[in-house]
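Re: the request from the purification team.
They wanted to know what the chain is likely to look like in 3D before they choose a buffer screen. I agreed to run a prediction and write the result into the notebook, where they can find it.
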Amino acid sequence: MLGSEIMGYYRRGGERDRLAAGQGRLEFLRTWDVLCRVLSGAPAAVLDVGGATGVYAGPLAQAGYQVRVVDPVPEHVADAAVLPGVSAVIGDARALPAEDGSVDAVLLLGPLYHLSDRADRVTAWREAARVVRAGGVVVGATISRFASLFDGFVKDYFSDARFRPLAERALADGVHRNVDAERSWFTSAYFHHPDELAGEVAEAGLIVRRRVAVEGPLWMTGQRLTEILASPDLTGLLLEMMRSVEDEPSLLGASSHILTIAVRRIEGVGGMEG
């Protein structure tokens, strides 16, 4: 389960509205857009691992999916469980409370952030591979290795001398080790280099289909992003244009988040990234 510092961060309730505005809203809209295109049709069964308060589970249930949230934070589980059509249970991504091949899709839209050891991340991917049916999809979200560097300038974190060593450590080995729980520097986490993802997924026995830049560099545009998202026409244009470049490898590192879409191998059928 989560360490005390990470658990404390999430128990403060920030996940209830984090994806409602600004760069969080862009993250949600882009992630939702990708999910709508890669998930099989409703009423497919979706296991939303690290699903927090159900920000994706709720809309998925409304769309007719059978959704179960698994999350280590009791407050998250309580919030998600009251959403219509959503069930929720406390659990760990490395030991999922689900039977082999019992779901059509697994979402890992948070757990990989907080598994600093590679072996634990591979275990989470492997558990997803175990519970998804053959041919089923697994979608994992990771934070870019360069997110702290960019965020430090966008939000002026570098004005605090304690932030630079934190950003430099993340650049060196991916480990974002929070130094002050009271500062809004996220919490201790692991930030992936885009080139790491394929190896972790393959080791877990899954086939990588796509790596997708969620926000691209647009998350760094500040007030202009708020103005774009306030306009339905501009928001639609943004989503349309981002779809056309989301697979572009050179954008992966500039995106705050990366989605890796993988599938469980069907016995006797090979596959490759593409």
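For the purification team: The chain has a mean pLDDT of 93.
Please add any questions underneath this entry.
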